[in-house]
Design a protein that fits this description.
about 220 residues, Endonuclease Iii, domain 2, Endonuclease III, domain 1, 2 domains
């Protein structure tokens, strides 16, 4: 049986992460959000839909969603069954439809239909957790409020030995401590691209990986 690698020493992360950041920047110089959107409101709605769903599937659904309910004011008064029908294929459609309507209602009631620009105000909206708020603030407004930890980021930062945590919240705290704040936004975007193109969960292309010299491959066979 192949032997798994053990976690690398904590104190080697700082020098390695500088090299990892530089390598990611060279490999993915243009790092953009994979969710199609034309406004902060659209991005927030798309990010809510992306929970337990691929970005590709969300991008197939959102054109009809935004055609029928193009503003927070329109979505706030939408009928739940109608929204459920549109978002059905993204999974957990009842909860997502309720969160979309609740989010829009909250924007109209408390923010005059405008998107707030603080974590506290965003996470007070239905369906908006810290990850979703970080996506919105970083992508739409360029505000580095934290590090987005999705399934790709969680998996790859473990492989890289940057964290031994298992929860998204603890992983985010580890990354925020390691990364300069100026890299919080782009690091996640680039690592997500890397997870889709090279560090694929079931078939990682380690021989092609630009991060290979800096990766202890935690949990992978020797």
């Amino acid at each position: 049986m192949a032997k798994s690698r053990s976690p690398s020493a904590i104190d080697d992360r700082k020098p390695r992460i500088c090299k990892i950041v530089a390598s990611l920047a060279r490999t993915y110089p243009v790092a953009i959000c994979a969710l199609n959107h034309e406004s902060p409101f659209q991005l927030l709605a798309a990010t809510i839909l992306s929970a337990q769903c691929t970005d590709e599937r969300v991008n197939l659904v959102t054109p009809e969603l935004f055609r029928r309910w193009p503003t927070p004011q329109a979505l706030a008064v939408a009928k739940q069954p109608d929204v459920e029908e549109v978002v059905h294929s993204t999974g957990f459609f009842r909860a997502k439809a309720a969160n979309l309507i609740g989010m829009a209602s909250g924007l109209v009631k408390h923010h005059n239909g405008e998107l707030p620009r603080t974590l506290a105000e965003l996470t007070a909206l239905p369906g908006v957790g810290r990850k979703t708020a970080n996506v919105l603030l970083g992508t739409a407004f360029g505000i580095p409020s934290g590090v987005v930890v999705d399934t790709h980021v969680k998996r790859i930062t473990t492989l890289l030995g940057l964290t031994q945590a298992t929860s998204a919240e603890r992983i985010e705290q580890d990354l925020m401590a390691l990364l300069p704040q100026s890299e919080w936004i782009n690091f996640s975007h680039r690592l997500i691209h890397h997870g889709r193109r090279i560090c694929i969960a079931r078939r990682p292309k380690c021989d092609e990986c630009p991060l290979r010299p800096h990766c202890p491959r935690i949990g992978l066979p020797e």
